[in-house]
Amino acid sequence: MNWQEIKLSECGTFFNYHEKKAFDKTFINALKFHAPGFAPVQDELGWYHINTNGVELYKQRYKRVFGFYCNRAAVINDAGWFHIDESGNRLCTETYAWIGNYQEDKCAVRDLNNNYYHIDPLGYRIYKENYFYAGDYKDGYACVKSNDGWKHINSKGIDLNNKRFENLGIFHKNYATARDSNGWFHIDKNGSELYSSRYHSIEPFYNGFSLVEDFDKRKLVIAESGETNYLVP
What we know:
With 233 residues, this protein is an all-beta fold. It is built from no helices and 23 strands. It has a 4-stranded antiparallel beta sheet with strand order 7-8-9-10, with no helix packed on it. The protein starts with 5 loop residues before the first strand and ends with a strand.
């Protein structure tokens, strides 16, 4: 079966293939298939992964499992969180309080002391700093929360632009969302504002325009220059 044609049912307990029930199996819970062709499912014994034939990848059961990213999946047992490979083998000996999914061969984790940082595919720390929070890498950069605010770091964990913000989003087509004491706005990779206006909430730019909400709760569409393009009725 082509995994891209296997669809999760609306109830989230079985799969359909060409509008027919696949594998003749019903699960307690299931998540959709995605690359390289595996899906997380739950039976009476716990969570595990199946292939496109509905066959388990391994015998072990977990409290929860998630999808494979960069050939690694996050799983949870009674001790905590860690990653497994596609054969169900545990990767690295470290157990975490939480782990994310590998993105761009890097993964955000929270250790048992509630420190956030990123690890490489072998489980080694990318940098020595600890953070209050660390997000996924996208296009070579990640958002982290330090003592003095939010900032962007590069793939080696180095501060991108020495700017700090009250909140921050990832870069999307060279621009990121940021918040200071006056509200939300957009910045470039130098951490410089694209315009002087501030908003109650904003979205990333989509083909040159962003949906924002001002402090009067009006929704507007603005251009990258900050100019209002359209007032949403």
